[in-house]
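Course assignment 3, question 2. Fill in each field.
Student: A.L.
Task: Predict the tertiary structure for the chain below.
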Amino acid sequence: AGGSHTCALTRGGEVWCWGRNSEGQLGNNQVDGKIEYGAVLVNVTPVKAIGLTDMKQVATGLDHTCAVTSASTVWCWGKNSSNQLGYNAGQKSIVPNEVPALDSVSLLVAGQNHNCVLNANVAKCWGANESGQLGDGTLANSEIPKVVSGLTYPVQLSAGSHSCAALVDGSALCWGANDSGQLGSMNPNSRVPAAVAGLQVSGGIFASFDAHSCAIATGKNVKCWGKNTEGQLGNGTYLNTSVPTNVLEPVQ
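Answer field:
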């Protein structure tokens, strides 16, 4: 699910989306919806993203969507204010188009306004980078997928306002925004990956959202950290924390 839209992959490899479509994030060659909800037009029933068949992954950002084909290429559509589509230099697209020069993709994740992929055992990210979430050591947005610095054999990625990776040895690293402790430290925003102290990830299971992350740790406990103003860490408090903390039972 994205900021105000949701997409799903059918067994036949089609992508169907519903919800807000103000930026063309549904991919159906429109920028409006069927029913007015407040001042926003939305699609309350799924519509088919045009031209996509035989897809194997789909990921939704705040107002954009990307998907991976069976040939391991990436197609994106929707809002493009931070070059998160990987083409068209800031111009939105209401239909899917291929991200140039990106193949052999085994995993795709979408953050708020950026994306990351695993590409031949290398992590690459593109789009918004105002907090360093691309992990290339700069704060410059990029239409071109950038190699994330300092990752050795990443096996899982996640993204929100920040990005995270689990490595083959079970260690976890995060980079980007850290206003709520979502990098797993009390340090400032980071332009390059930094270790999440005391966390070993089991089986590479990792997920990130706006400003918090969760992982299945060694021992099968679910641990979350970062923003907690709505209780999203599941630890019985409303306090932000940079320390990965167990979600209360019965979640295991």
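Instructor remarks: DSSP finds no helices and 19 strands in the chain. The chain has a mean pLDDT of 93.
Grade: pending
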